């Protein structure tokens, strides 16, 4: 079975639709997301409606939690806080209900989904050796799927605790069989941060134990125009074109 992994969509419907069109040609049977459905971008309700249609199952990110008042925006940087207040203001009731119902972790077969890390599903960035060690110590299934850093990668842990890090470049297919534990980050769909502005996602093949990373070009200018029209901060629109 082939499952599309979507993370950090960040209210970017144009990027999401481009990814769904790309995935439609790749024999995908299910869609999972690892949070930050909203925040930063201009289309929170439309993105949630699309995820409901698919349907996609997923988990809550820090931007989702803050948009519905579950956590404070004090920890957010100033621009993220402005965008989060904007999102909370425009979000309609069905979108709000959808975000409130998202769990912080979700287990499905050999996979565990979460946004940040298993130690701190909403906030922690899996970007240091220490963070990965703590994460893998809590991982009860062979594979976890995370998000939050917006950097596509596969990290595998050997029985002797050695880590192998593979950056998820476009069209790369990697096996995660034979290693004790794996953690997949499909990258930032709606706001990539690795210098490549194209939307990032991944497809796992559960039979072959492989993950394929994909990048998809989309109409960034159209999203920027909606952000400016909606009054979202200019630097958040500009960064989409830089992929940072
Ligand atoms: Zn995010």
How would you sum up this structure, described in words?
This protein is α/β, with parallel strands linked by helices and 244 residues long. Helix content is 32%, strand content 23%. The protein has helices spanning 13-24, 44-53, 62-67, 78-90, 93-100, 129-138, 220-230, 234-242, and strands at residues 2-6, 30-33, 56-58, 105-108, 111-114, 143-145, 153-157, 163-167, 173-175, 181-185, 199-205, 210-216. The strands form 2 sheets. Strands 3-2-1-11-12-9 form a 6-stranded mixed sheet. Strands 4-5-6-10-7-8 form a 6-stranded mixed sheet, with no helix packed on it. The model has no long low-confidence stretch (mean pLDDT 97). The structure holds zinc ion.
Strand order, sheet with most strands: 3-2-1-11-12-9
* CA-based shape: globular
Any low-confidence stretches, pLDDT <50, length ≥5?
none
> Could you tell me which ligands this complex binds, including any ions or cofactors?
zinc ion
Distinct helical segment count: 8
Task: Please report the total strand number as a whole number.
Answer: 12
Rg: 17 Å
> N- to C-terminal separation?
33 Å
Secondary-structure content class: alpha/beta
Largest sheet geometry: 6 strands, mixed
Give the ordered list of helices and strands.
Answer: EHEHEHHHEEHEEEEEEEHH
Mean pLDDT reading = 97
Q: Helical amount among residues, as a percent range?
A: 25-40%
Give the percentage of residues in beta strands: 15-25%
Give a quick set of tags describing it:
globular; 244 residues; alpha/beta; 6-stranded mixed sheet; binds zinc ion; 8 helices; 32% helix
């Amino acid at each position: 079975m082939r499952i599309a992994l979507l993370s950090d969509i960040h209210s970017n419907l144009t990027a999401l639709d481009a990814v769904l069109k790309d995935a439609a040609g790749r024999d995908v049977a299910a869609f999972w997301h690892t949070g930050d459905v909203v925040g930063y971008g201009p289309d929170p309700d439309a993105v949630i409606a699309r995820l409901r249609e698919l349907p996609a199952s997923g988990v809550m990110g820090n931007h989702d939690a803050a948009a519905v008042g579950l956590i404070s925006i004090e920890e957010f940087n100033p621009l993220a806080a402005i965008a989060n207040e904007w999102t909370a203001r425009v979000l309609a009731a069905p979108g709000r209900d959808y975000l409130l119902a998202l769990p912080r972790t979700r287990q499905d077969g050999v996979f565990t989904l979460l946004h940040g890390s298993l130690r701190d599903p909403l906030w922690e960035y899996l970007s240091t050796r220490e963070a990965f060690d703590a994460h893998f110590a809590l991982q009860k299934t062979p594979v976890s799927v995370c998000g939050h850093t917006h950097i596509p990668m596969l990290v595998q842990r050997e029985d002797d605790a050695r880590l192998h890090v593979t950056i998820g470049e476009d069209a790369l297919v990697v096996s995660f069989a034979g290693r004790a534990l794996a953690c997949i980050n499909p990258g930032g769909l709606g706001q990539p941060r690795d210098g490549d502005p194209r939307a990032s996602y991944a497809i796992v093949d559960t039979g072959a134990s492989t993950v394929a990373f994909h990048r998809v070009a989309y109409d960034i200018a159209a999203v920027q125009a909606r952000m400016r029209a909606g009054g979202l901060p200019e630097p958040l629109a500009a960064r989409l074109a830089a992929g940072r």
